Amino acid sequence: MQGRMLEEVVGLLTSDKPFEPDGYLEWEPKNHLDACQATPPMYEAFFQAMLHVVKEGAGESWSDRQTTAWQDRVDCIMARVHGYA
Prior knowledge:
The protein is an all-alpha fold. 72% of the residues lie in helices and 0% in strands.
């Protein structure tokens, strides 16, 4: 299950499919907020940790443009999460 969850997170960050009607973001945040007592700050901390790992792994090839793109995507995801909170 954990490998699948990581795959879903990567998909959230790299694909527009989760934003489509009936996509992942239409139901999964509500599930995590209700069933798992996840909170928006938990999501935000998780995405910041992911950014740190990816940025560190990319090393010198990581750019400010990539940081901006990452944050833009996380902002879109968090808008959906906050909509359920």
